[in-house]
Design goal:
The chain is an alpha/beta fold and 370 residues long. It contains ten helices and 16 strands. Strands 1, 2, 3, 4, 5, 6, 7, 14 and 16 form a nine-stranded mixed beta sheet that branches. Strands 10-9-8-11-12-15-13 form a seven-stranded parallel beta sheet. A hairpin with a 5-residue loop joins strand 2 and strand 3.
């Protein structure tokens, strides 16, 4: 059995492999060769009076890849507000700047535990790769420019993914913090050898872009439909789109269908972008720490209201039919399967290269039937 840390994952996992692995795994869903369980979070009040503890898991398996994966994460959350009253999620484990997330990989052929993998790099890469899949099938083939709203880790892998599937030459990036957008521009220009320019407003980032992405941790709309122009392809991370984006879009697909249960309707908390499989503890006073729902727009509708990636790949639903159409890809829904697919790619590559820290498999086995 292997323990695979983030530096090793970064060494072995390419964005092309990340996109291809997900493409294969997602195509197994209609036939039953793949399966996933959407994310479920458990929230418990913590000692921090403005925060909550959250335990999150998601699972997926692929017969073709021969693996099952569960991704687990343990966070202390809190939600500071800016001067305009907008919520922003912050999190940590133990102390600010440290995080705990693990992917456990098992063989579906003999049940053996295969690997424990730090989830940091995989998490960003699998989300970016999902956005790349959407751009691969829905953006115009002659897309050369990107408008990026956000400058964090997801914004980095999103741009990598767009460059993997399209000949991207120019990028405009907006982040509310000038220092952050300038650092992003310098880093990504050097890494991808393309022109990346920081801009001072989100509208400026969207103007003239072929691919538009909202990759933020904002808990309110960061991208507005009023800014969109004909021919653009749009994608998100966590639902940071206003209702007008859905109105303006001519073609809408979602990565996957989340068969999750409705939350307790008496708990009117947690903003858009959160899944509906949350289990939330706490008394009335403690629940007030959580962000309130802030709108009931398009993202509040059942996920089945949009065709999924499997519909997209099957050809049973029309894709872009003209260069003037606006396409929208909601990059969420198959999270557990993503970790199985990308985790398998990382594990197999580590076996080939002799990388990773060996752990005795017998440590994780027992002779007591459970």
């Amino acid at each position: 059995m292997l323990f695979i840390d983030n530096p090793t994952v970064e060494k072995v996992l390419s964005m092309d492999d990340c996109i291809d692995a997900q493409d294969i795994a997602f195509r197994g869903l209609p036939s039953g060769a793949s399966v996933h369980r959407p994310r479920i979070d458990v929230y418990v009040p913590t000692d921090r009076t403005d925060g909550y503890y959250r335990w999150g898991t998601m699972e997926g398996a692929s017969k073709d890849l021969g693996v099952f994966a569960i991704r687990m994460k343990s966070d202390i959350l809190y939600w500071p507000q800016d001067e305009q009253g907008f919520w922003k999620e912050e999190k940590y484990n133990t102390e600010p700047g440290l995080y705990c997330g693990l992917v456990m990989l098992f063989s579906t052929r003999n049940g053996a535990p295969l690997a424990i993998i730090n989830d940091g790099i995989i998490q960003h890469m699998r989300v970016g790769g999902g956005a790349g899949l959407g751009a691969k099938y829905l953006s115009r083939p002659d897309s050369h420019t990107v408008g990026m709203i956000g400058s964090g880790g997801m914004a980095r892998t999103y741009l990598q993914a767009f460059c993997s599937v399209r000949d991207i030459r120019h990028v405009k990036v907006f982040s509310p913090t000038k220092k952050n957008r300038e650092a992003y521009a310098a880093e990504m220009a050097g890494k991808l050898e393309i022109d990346v320019q920081p801009v001072s407003t989100p509208e400026e980032a969207v103007e003239g872009a072929d691919i538009v992405s909202a990759a933020t941790n904002a808990m309110q709309a960061a991208l507005k439909g009023a800014w969109l122009q004909p021919g653009q392809h749009v994608t998100d991370v966590r639902g940071e789109l206003d209702d007008d984006v859905f109105t303006r879009a001519d073609v809408i697909f979602k990565q996957g269908v989340s068969h999750s249960r409705p939350r307790n309707e008496d708990v009117e908390h947690m903003g858009d972008g959160y899944n509906n499989g949350d289990y939330i503890a706490g008394n009335a006073e403690e629940l007030e720490r959580l962000p309130k729902r802030h709108r009931s727009g398009a993202l509040g509708e059942p996920s089945t209201s949009y065709p999924s990636f499997t519909d997209l790949a099957s050809g049973n639903f029309p894709l872009r039919t003209s260069d003037e159409q606006i396409t929208l890809y909601l990059n969420t829904g198959n999270q557990g399967l993503q970790f199985a697919a990308v985790g398998a790619a990382v594990y197999n590559r580590c076996l080939e290269l002799g990388l990773g820290h060996q752990l005795p498999t017998e440590w994780f086995l027992q002779d007591i039937r459970d």
